[in-house]
Amino acid sequence: MRRSLGVRQPSAMARWLRFNLVGLIGVAVQLSMVKLLLATNAIDYRVATLFAVEMAVLHNFCWHVRFTWRERRLSSAKVVLRRLTEFHLTNGLVSLAGTWTLMALLVGRARVPVIGANMVSIAACSMVNFLLAEVLVFRKTKSGRGSRTASLQLLHSS
């Protein structure tokens, strides 16, 4: 780990591992939501999948702020909301568009089971999402400093 302004910077490999740990928990969130929504038989698998992806995206953002990129401080609620918007415009869109497309192909045409097709879709989108998050969403700021208080308050508010 490197030090920058007194804050420990994880290596690229450590960050990738953190990203994947959060992602694995996000997979559980997504697959649980799909299974729960499909159990009612009142919702199409594509709609259930889109809703589940959104829940996983929100989950992952919160944990990436608190764990994966915790040393890249977010100094205010405004910054957190801007980064959440950027996360949705990058990781969210990649996940939604990639999953929608792959689900249509895998379930609709190849007749792959819904949960298996979700797992393939998640894996296919993960590398692109890591690169977008590292380079764009959680990019280093010029100062690299700031209070995390506002960002943590926003994430803990209910």
Structure description:
The protein is mainly alpha-helical and 158 residues long. Helix content is 74%, strand content 4%. The chain has one domain (10-156). It has helices at residues 12-39, 45-68, 77-109, 114-137, 149-156, and strands at 2-4, 7-9. The protein has a two-stranded antiparallel ribbon with strand order 1-2. Helix 1 (12-39) packs antiparallel against helix 4 (114-137), helix 2 (45-68) packs antiparallel against helix 3 and helix 3 (77-109) packs antiparallel against helix 4 (114-137). Residues 145-158 have low confidence and may be disordered.
List the helices and strands and how they pair.
Layout: E1 2-4, E2 7-9, H1 12-39, H2 45-68, H3 77-109, H4 114-137, H5 149-156
Antiparallel strand pairs: 1-2
Please provide a brief summary of the model.
This protein has five helices and two strands; from the N terminus they run ββααααα. The chain has 158 residues and is mostly helical.
The dominant shape is elongated
Helix and strand content put the structural class at: mainly alpha
The end-to-end span amounts to 34 Å
What gyration radius follows from the Cα positions, in whole Å? 17 Å
Q: Please report the total strand number as a whole number.
A: 2
Uncertain runs are 145-158
Task: State the assembly state of the protein chains.
Answer: single chain
Q: Tell me about the biggest sheet?
A: 2 strands, antiparallel
Count of separate structural domains: 1
**SSE run:** EEHHHHH
Strand content range: under 5%
Q: Name the strands of the widest sheet in spatial order.
A: 1-2
Helix content: over 70%
Mean pLDDT: 84
* Count, helices: 5
